[in-house]
Amino acid sequence: MDEHLVKEVLSEPRNQKEEIQALQDTIYVIGGKWKLPIINSICNGNRRFREIERSIPGITTRMLSRELKDMEANKLLKRTVTPTSPVTVEYSPSDYCHSFADIILHMIKWGKEHRQRLRED
């Protein structure tokens, strides 16, 4: 465990209520089945709705639309509308979204290690 990070994030004395609220806020914003795969897709260059949809097996059009709106409201994505014919809509990660890139990388790493651990038993 990174002691510097522990001292930076956790108060002394510990405030469990504040810690739980922060965890719940994080889970609310990036939790669920689809948000992280959507972010991953967009960060991998899929910018248009159909590109994102095709890159995520099992997601429905309705669910993707709902999640994109929610993520835009939480300032994770930028939605750009270009008045061409037909109108072009593209999504891109915001700077704020990039602020938790390390968290996503750690989650991917943990997930790979977890899957490997399950195979070993």
Automatic annotation (TrEMBL):
It comes from the Bacteria. InterPro entries: HTH_HxlR (IPR002577), WH-like_DNA-bd_sf (IPR036388), WH_DNA-bd_sf (IPR036390). Keywords: DNA-binding, Transcription, Transcription regulation. The keyword Cell cycle does not apply. GO terms for molecular function: DNA binding. Residues 12-119 form the HTH hxlR-type domain. This is Transcriptional regulator. It holds the Pfam family HxlR.
